[in-house]
Design a protein that fits this description.
Strand content: 15-25%
Helix content: 25-40%
Distance between the termini: 52 Å
CATH architecture of the largest domain: 3-Layer(aba) Sandwich
Number of helices: 14
Length: about 400
Amino acid sequence: MTRSLPRDPIIRQLVVQAHKTQFSRRHVLQAAGIGASALALAACAPVELGLKSTTDQSGNDKTLTWDNWASYIDEDAAGNHPTLANFRGATGIKVNYRPTIENNNSYYATIKDKLARGEDTGADTFCLTEWMVGRLIRFGYVQTLDAESIPNKKNLAPALLNPDFDPGRQKSLPWQNGFTGLAWNAEKVPGGLTTLNDLWNPALKGKVTVLSEMRDTMGVIMLGQGVDISGAAWGADQFSAAIDVLDKHVTSGQILGIKGNEYTKDLASGAAVAALAWSGDITVLNAQAGYEKWKFTLPSEGGTLWGDSFMVPIGTRRKVNVEKLINYYYEPEIAAEVAAWVHYITPVVGAQEIAQDKYPALANNQLIFPNAETLAKAHIFRTLAPADEQTFNAEFQRVQQGVK
């Protein structure tokens, strides 16, 4: 049976992009040159883990710990998070919110051994990018969410309900989505940036940063080479050509660094004036500067569209508390409040209508509520087979570490 696409242009585009992520097994790079990091990853095999008698204690323990990325929730001038305070008032649950995630790989390294043993990681929930979400689900490292405890799941954008790594969203639910594109200091780069090649202008030598998330940096570079990163018709050859570009500009000193969340410090300090950046970070930098010092755009060749999702790791005894937290953030009013601060794309249907009333200046902001034209410039990096993921990550880390 053929289903018609949703009327909402945002959801229509996300559906189209989601369909493009289906793929067949790809060719991989030659084994020569694969670093130890890939071998370590290869040693991780999917497992079937059960909880170690972890009877949920949420009824008696009104707390939970939430690990997340920096600048990824509402925050007032005193450093408090109003929505979390309201959540505690409504439920009695106190949230220990920890913005400790710099990038997916480094965070995973801190918890993988405990996950492999089925132990409590110290966090009751965390929000990682969906390629990592897929890995944790595949390894059996997360718990199944109780849909009855999250009735507001009905507000999830339909296009996000059935990703290939978690059909029906039984083990994960989206927190925010966002873009990777070009950012620049408007005072130092008055002409702005429009294409990926603008980053390689000799005038910017040593003043450019790119992201340590392989799919973001390599995705934009591959798009710049005309590769459809969402589709199945690319593999080792196209990835290798893009790695050569990255390697060239790292070796020459054009690129100052390949970094996680700390890249914003280089921008704020002036050490870097241009970057491959995450869209919401520019809002934070401008808020810190007190004016619109930084600009952001999707490259003319296209940028990436990504998502971070909630999970409940095995071992935690506060799953019910987390489910109440997720349900709270899937209220359109709360989702709109968070979106107005973080400037990322909310997955919650109805948030834009709330924003039109409460935050009219933001209701048509393309970084928060993108239309079909904007979404057409953003591409989802297709899901990788495990062998491809190991090999591509190893090659990326080789360049990041300066290994020839």
